[in-house]
Every structure is written in C-alpha cells, then in structure tokens.
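[AMINO ACID CHAIN]
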Amino acid sequence: MKRNIKGNVSWVGHIDWDLETFHGDDYSIMNGSSQNAYLIEEEKTVLVDTVWAPHRFEFVENLRKAVDLKKIDFIIANHGETDHSGALTALLDEIPGTPVYCTAAAVKSLEGQYGKRGWNFKVVKTGDELDIGNGKKLVFVEMKMLHWPDSMAVFMTGDDILFSNDAFGQHFAVEELFNDKANQCLLMKEALKYYVNILNPFSPLVAKKIEEISGMNLNISMICPSHGVIWRDNPLQIVEKYAQWSKSYQENQITVIYDTMWEGTARLAREIAFELSAAKPDTVVKVFSVSKSDKNEVMTEVFKSKAIVVGSPTVSNDILSSMTGWLAFLKQLKFKNKKAAVFGCYGWSGEGNRILREKLKDAGFEVVDEEIKSLWNPETEDFAKIKDMIARL
C-alpha cells in the first residue's frame, strides 16, 4: 500500500507482523519487522529498494495500484541482500530495461543471486548524482560493509531525506511508520539489538562513515531505513546513538553467562551474581543461561557490559556444546574493551576453564587470572574465591 511520508515521497513496503526469525534462524524477531521500499514521484519516478522475495508478487501488485509501472524511470538498489532486492525479478519482468542504480559490488551480488538477466545496471559511487527534476537530485553514498560490501545510501535534496538502507534500522513493526509514533522504549531496545547483532563487527567502519557523511554537510531532515521506523522526529538522534555505539561502548554492567549439567555451575552463577551485586551496588548485574535464553538478546546485554563472567562444566575434555556455539557467535561480533572471568565444575579432567579462557581471549576479551574451578559440586571454599575474582572486573 502507498503511504505518503513527505512531499512526493511515499512508503510502498511490507510490514511483517508474523516474522519470528531473520538471516535464517540467526536473528530473533520479537516485535515484528518491515521491509521498507520508497516511491519518489517528481518529474522522474524513482523506486528505492523492494522487499523480501516471499512478498515479491504482492509487492508488484500493490505497486501497480500506486503507480503505472511503466512510469518508473529508475530503480535504486541500495543493497543486494534478498530482503531488499527480492522483488526485482518480478518487477523487472514487468518493466525490462529500467535502469537499476547500484554499486559495482551490488552488480556482482544481484547477478550472483538471480543470475545474469541482462538488467540495465548503472554503477555509481560516493558523490555521484541523479537529477530527478523539480530542482531535486539523488546523491549516492557508498556504505561498504554496513553491512555488506555492496551497501549504499541515497540522499534526496530538496526534501533532505536520507534513504539509509540497513543503517539506522531495526527489526520492529510499527504500523504508523514513524519513530514518534512508536513505543520509545521498545524502539531503542530494538535499534540497539539490531546494531549489536548485525553492525557491531563493523563498528570502526560505522564511525568513519558517520564522520564522512557529517563532512558532506547534508541537511538531513528524515532518515528512511530499510527496516523499522522512519526517523522524522529528531532524526539525528539515531546517528548520535550509532556514533556512541561504534566506539567500544559499555555501561556499568556485568553479565553472567553460563550453562550447566547437574546444577553445580548454575549454583556458582547465582552466587557470583549475588556477590557482584553486594560488592558493586551501582553496577547492573544480569544472569543468562545460554541454553534457555535468546542469544541475540544476550549479546545485546554483553555489548552493554564492561565485563562478563562465563561458566561451563567440563564435558568429555571440553565445554558444553551450547557454550561452544555461543562463544563462536561472541567472537563473530568483535566486542572491544571488555573484561572476562571464567568458572565451572568438573568431575574428572577439568579442562573447561582453560578452554573458556582461550576462547574468550580469542574473542578479544581481557581475561582475569582469578577463576572458580569446583570439583563435583561447589563448596564453601569455592564460594570464598568469588570475591577475589569479581574484584578484578
């Protein structure tokens, strides 16, 4: 459905209230999501992005109701990932030859995913412009690795709208579209979760890109991302948040993460949390079992933490497989400037703490020497070591 957002610009995307996971099952969706596409109708008619492939035919039919498809002069493909480009095949079957503006890397991405279909690609780079009439133009800004090599954004002069693609988005469904209409607590929670689990590995590039865009002196009055709300009320607030989050962000928080077999390691986790709260009353303390908690939610709490305490029993000369998988994801997200400590129970060989320590160091954490290593079940002497360990965090 076509919904006006400013001037001659309309939203023509898809709100998905039923979506539960994204990127396969790698990202959890708690409050729905959206695939945002935009229609610009100046002297030239421009479509900015499309929607996910499962919704491609519905998208084309809705677009047909909004505009004569043959009047579309240009298509902007800000990013080749299928949640943005998935309707291009169906749309370009209807209007073959329509120019598709994208980066050179996006040509490779789109042809790699959909095959070489003879699409009329127009390759652009940062600073290139496209005149759309009525004294307005589109200015292209490459956004390499935010979060794919092919990503870009587009700034529309006159209305001063930044079509930012994956940057500044959230997996969050808001029927009213705009940030000032959303639940503000949920909005910022979902914006942070999105940044942590998708963009944090590229934080150094995020910081540089924000500086670059600031240097272009664009008078941004609205930010239109490809997922979630449209930022019209103080749109630069999310840019300021990204600037903070991109620089080794942390709050006064310590998070305890563990898994357990026969509750010994769980008992240690609870006691560590109690001692942390007693010794550091101004510090927020949170506790998660990796086998019972959503991993994306847990990683968001890790991002906020200045330190984490990680525990697993020793199992077959190793740690629990649930913890192994979680630590692999932890390494992938490339957190910076955080400490860690380890704990766990064992019955025979006792390698668990050493393996935890190695994996945390490999993930970029500063691991303190003090640890809790309990034979069979934690005893009084094990609990007594907790204070020394948390004093180092």
Notes: The longest helix spans residues 184-199. The radius of gyration is 24 Å. The CA atoms of residues 134 and 230 lie 24 Å apart. The chain has two domains: 3-245, 253-390.
